[in-house]
Write a structure and sequence with these properties.
The protein is α/β, with parallel strands linked by helices. It has 11 helices and 17 strands. Helix 4 (142-154) packs across helix 5.
């Protein structure tokens, strides 16, 4: 089989590997579509703090079950599915308290273990989720949606809240959609006008182009000078974290999704003065996947418009290069692995 292989930062190519054989409690999956996550791109560029090399990237995927044993969930060959790509140890303090997404020994596919940019993968049956009629393309979007969805669940987003999302990439948009689903008024900020134009397809209440508009002045206008009830950082930059602190109302929630490598310095007294709640968010949980599959399959939310391009597997290197030089017009790129 073919795999997308990153030998070291900046060095990516297609390679051949043996098709894996499933063990007890595992299924062999034939990958249909795989999305390029920001973390995959960071693995390629060397900016992902958790990646080990060499590595097959990828964890946003849909697949067809090829081989599976009898199982209590009724999964069978031919089913179109997605899967939870975060492998937890089950023994650490986090796991024992049910915080499986933040296992101290977590291994995410494509980061600490080989991922889904591969024609075939083996997955534990318990991690596989039936697609409930969703297309393979849509199912490949459930994992990134779950990241934004889980992040919003970490805070206290309520109907009528004013929410600011900084970063209009895929994860930021999915977080914004998740806040809208909870009844909030949501604005999203970015430096790329094309990203903001795309974000409006999902029913958000407005955008802030910080390349042209002053974020503080625009936020005062939107919130009547009160600040936002919830600020969501989806960039991974120290500067945008500080922006969240500045734009937050007294008693507001700040939710951090963006993952970066650079340190940031600030006077922590501002957190005390405004009595802010700061929530980190990492990965997602089984319930996030299952709730989103139900939600999307019900037609209550449409997420396919976030797909800007689909590349064939043979063009995977070109796809990664396209995102490296993204001018903001590329939102979510999928790689078609198989028919």
């Amino acid at each position: 089989m073919n795999v997308v292989f990153i030998e070291e930062p900046g060095k990516i190519e297609l390679k051949e590997r043996e098709i894996p054989a499933p063990g007890k409690g595992e299924a062999l999956l034939k990958i249909k579509y795989c999305g390029i996550c920001g973390s995959d791109l960071a693995t390629f560029t060397g900016n992902q703090p958790f990646t080990t090399y060499p590595r097959i990237p990828g964890h946003e995927f849909s697949a067809e079950i090829v081989q599976i044993g009898e199982n209590p969930r009724g999964l069978k060959p031919g089913d179109i599915v997605t899967a939870n790509p975060y492998f937890n140890c089950g023994r650490c303090y986090s796991c024992r308290r049910g915080i499986l997404n933040a296992c101290v020994s977590n291994e995410t596919m494509g980061v600490q273990r080989d991922g889904s940019f591969s024609e075939y993968v083996v997955m534990p049956v318990e991690r596989i989720y039936p697609g409930k009629g969703l297309s393979a393309k849509t199912l490949a979007l459930i994992e990134p949606f779950s990241i934004g969805y889980h992040a919003v669940s970490r805070g206290h987003v309520k109907p009528g809240h004013k929410v600011l999302v900084i970063g209009a990439g895929a994860i930021g948009i999915f977080a914004a959609i998740s806040a809208k689903l909870r009844g909030a008024e949501v604005h999203i900020a970015d430096v790329f006008a094309k990203r903001l134009e795309n974000a409006l397809k999902f029913g958000l209440d407005g955008t802030i182009d910080v390349s042209k508009e002053n974020l503080t002045e625009k936020s005062k206008e939107i919130t009547g000078g009160n600040g936002y009830d919830v600020c969501i950082e989806a960039v991974g930059s120290g500067a945008t974290f500080l922006d969240c602190i500045e734009q937050a109302a007294t008693g507001a929630d700040i939710i951090l999704i963006g993952n970066g490598k650079k340190e940031v310095t600030f006077n922590h007294s501002i957190l005390l003065k405004k009595e802010l709640n700061v929530f980190g968010s990492r990965n997602s949980l089984k319930k996030d996947f299952e709730e989103l599959i139900e939600l999307v399959s019900s037609g209550k939310v449409v997420i396919d418009p976030i797909i800007s391009d689909i590349f064939e597997m043979k063009d995977s290197v070109k796809a990664f290069d396209t995102l490296v030089h993204n001018d903001g017009s590329k939102f979510k790129i999928l790689i078609k692995i198989s028919d």
